[in-house]
Amino acid sequence: MTAATTVTVRVPAKVNLQLAVGPAREDGYHELVNVFHAVSLYDEVTVRRPDSAARVSGISLSGATGSDVPQDSTNLAARAAELLAHRIGYRGGVDLGDLVDLRIHKAIPVAGGMAGGSADAAAALLACATLWNTGHTVSELAPLAAELGSDVPFALMGHTAVGRSRGEQLTPLTCTVTLHWVFALAHGGLSTAEVYRAYDRIRPQAPEPELSHALTRALEAGDAAAVGQALHNDLQPAALDLRPELARTLQAGADAGALGGIVSGSGPTCAFLARDGEHARELAAELEWSGTCLRTVCAHGPVPGATRTQG
Question: Which residues form the active site (predicted)?
Answer without folding.
Answer: 14, 151
